[in-house]
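Appendix C: a fully annotated inverse folding record. The material below is reproduced so that readers can follow the format used throughout the book. The structure is listed first as tokens, followed by the designed sequence.
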């Protein structure tokens, strides 16, 4: 009589399901839509299209040129100048965000010596030097030989098990370094956050890493900030733009 039990089981499930549907029908208050698009939809396609339509490649190019004009090693004067540039963009009366500020941390960083660059040499068992790293980048463009360009730490060797002669002259220093945060408050769920960020420091001019990302971030925040100042967009949830 297995099939009887099986049928009983199916009916039992069906009865419970039916009961659930009936209870649900009366239990959920009419008029309230718990999944209203304004609350549940994370992606507002209209805002997305508006933002995409207003992004300006030439502004990204200009910003990238400015960000990578000089090397900006973490905590260096140029790095601090970029903190001010970001604050100024995010506090702009026409395209700024709801708020922008910095938080500064004392961090222990490792700096290579300018006078005594690090060296890596691959030495054969015979004592012959097979490979020696370059002490500085090849001066392909004028700025490559600038005083603020940090000598590379190159640890690159052909395969094998040779002896490696490594001389490192770094120093550990406590320095102040700031995160910059720009904030747009969310219209509907201000306690939920969308974070968009990038690092800022670069040992050289950093046009690709990291400033290409920063330039795009600044253009997106300019478009969002402009819509915000015009009262045309108040995203949900709250996006936070951060850089460190
Ligand atoms: C680097 O190259 C530029 C030309 O591209 C030249 O004017 C400059 O003197 C060079 N600097 C060094 C230190 O070699
Ligand atoms: C390793 O480098 C140091 C510093 O340049 C040098 O004095 C030493 O002779 C080198 N050793 C070998 C095995 O090449
Ligand atoms: C960091 O900044 C604070 C406040 O200005 C200062 O007291 C402190 O000495 C600074 N630390 C370093 C390592 O410069």
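Designed amino acids, in order:
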């Amino acid at each position: 009589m297995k099939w009887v039990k099986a049928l009983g089981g199916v009916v039992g499930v069906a009865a419970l399901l039916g009961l659930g549907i009936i209870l649900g029908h009366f239990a959920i208050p009419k008029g309230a839509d718990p999944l209203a698009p304004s609350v549940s939809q994370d992606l507002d396609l209209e805002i997305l299209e508006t933002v995409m339509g207003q992004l300006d490649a030439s502004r990204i190019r200009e910003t990238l040129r400015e960000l990578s004009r000089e090397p900006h090693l973490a905590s260096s004067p140029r790095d601090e100048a970029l903190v001010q540039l970001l604050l100024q963009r995010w506090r702009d009366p026409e395209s700024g965000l709801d708020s922008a500020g910095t938080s500064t941390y004392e961090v222990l960083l490792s700096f290579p010596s300018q006078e005594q660059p690090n060296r890596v040499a691959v030495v054969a068992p015979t004592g012959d030097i097979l490979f020696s790293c370059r002490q500085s980048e090849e001066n392909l463009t004028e700025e490559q030989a600038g005083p603020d360009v940090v000598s590379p730490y190159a640890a690159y060797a052909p395969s094998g098990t040779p002896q490696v002669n490594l001389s490192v002259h770094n120093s550990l220093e406590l320095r102040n370094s700031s995160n910059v945060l720009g904030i747009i408050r969310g219209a509907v769920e201000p306690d939920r956050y969308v974070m968009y960020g990038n690092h800022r420091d670069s040992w050289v001019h950093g046009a690709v890493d990291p400033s290409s990302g920063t330039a795009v971030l600044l253009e997106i925040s300019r478009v969002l900030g402009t819509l915000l100042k015009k009262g045309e967009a108040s995203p949900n949830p709250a996006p936070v733009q951060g850089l460190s």
